Amino acid sequence: MESSDIQAQENKLTTQNTGEGTVTTTEQPSHDVTIYAEPIFNIGSFQVTNSLLTSWVGVLVVLALTLAIKLKIKKIPGKLQNFFEVMMEGALSLVDQVTNDRKISQRIFPFVFSLFVFILINNWLGLLPIFGSIGLLVKEGTGSAFVPFLRSATADINTTLALSIMVVIGSNFFGIVVIGAWKTFNKYVNIKALGEMVTKVRKDPAVLIVAPITFFVGLLELLGEIAKIASLSFRLFGNVFAGEVLLASMSAIFAYIVPGPFLFLEVFVGLIQALIFSLLATVYFTIASQDHSEHDEHDKKHENKNDEENEKIILSSV
């Protein structure tokens, strides 16, 4: 849009006839916070929105930090290197508390930590003054609306939905790599449980009741994977978008001082939400890497061993 058009829209006058005469007012553009990301420009048929543009900025920030740290790595660490080493070691120990397995932690740590940094940077970028304040005016119906060039990427449901889908699909793929495709498939479509109805019915008739229930539970697990996507995406989107609306409302009512505490609150919320998302991703990867059938067989062997020991104690007492 040309600058002359924008100026004309800003200075657009409306005339209203009243009983006492004619009143001329200046029409103000709309500055409402929308729940959807607004398009900025197109690359061919590909539409680039303001939240997508911010996510690209976030990626560039991550790359810049990575290169800055890599170029300053020394045998005797400096302050910056020492800070990041302490942070990485603390983050890895936190992942260890979830997985209880250092090998699993080391395999998934690069992914979940990168996810944490990306979400954190995008949460905090949206708090900068240039976000939501620089943009262009577009015609909208009979009036005009202000469209910012940059907007927090995590305040767009498309971004959080894409991250959630990536986590759920990635965790299942990780499960295939760790425990195998067949065992991962049987978590959701438990064909093994249906087969036990034929192979174990003579020894244990109760399997006719237990096996269909086990099969149905597997289907519920499949629905649970879809619920994970909804839970992850809407939690992150809801908290960040609500913070964006809160800051816009407070700034509109009180331009100075009062929005300060809310700004610091959103800094804390951005950190917490990035931590929650990455920890939940760690939990999903850990669950996907576990073979429940092995645990069941181990429990059965342990029960049989206890029964044998009890029988020996009873026989020795007799």
Task: Describe this structure in a few short sentences.
This protein is mainly alpha-helical and 318 residues long. It has helices spanning 3-10, 50-71, 79-99, 102-125, 157-179, 181-188, 191-199, 207-253, 259-288, 292-317, and strands at residues 13-17, 22-26, 39-43, 46-49, 135-140, 143-148.
Structural domain tally: 1
Terminal CA distance: 98 Å
List how many beta strands DSSP finds: 6
Main sheet: strand order = 1-2
Write the layout of secondary structure elements.
Blueprint: H1 3-10, E1 13-17, E2 22-26, E3 39-43, E4 46-49, H2 50-71, H3 79-99, H4 102-125, E5 135-140, E6 143-148, H5 157-179, H6 181-188, H7 191-199, H8 207-253, H9 259-288, H10 292-317
Antiparallel strand pairs: 1-2, 3-4, 5-6
Helix pairs in contact: 2-4, 3-4, 4-9, 5-6, 5-8, 5-9, 7-8, 8-9
Give an overview in words.
The protein has 318 residues and is mainly alpha-helical. It has one domain (41-134, 149-317). It has ten helices and six strands. The chain has a two-stranded antiparallel sheet with strand order 1-2. A two-stranded antiparallel sheet has the order 3-4. A hairpin with a 2-residue loop joins strand 3 (39-43) and strand 4 (46-49). Helix 2 crosses helix 4 (102-125). The protein is globular, with a radius of gyration of 29 Å. The N and C termini lie far apart (98 Å). The model is unreliable at 1-26 and 297-304 (pLDDT under 50).
Keywords:
two-stranded antiparallel sheet; 69% helix; globular; disordered N terminus; mainly alpha; 10% strand; 6 strands; 10 helices; 318 residues
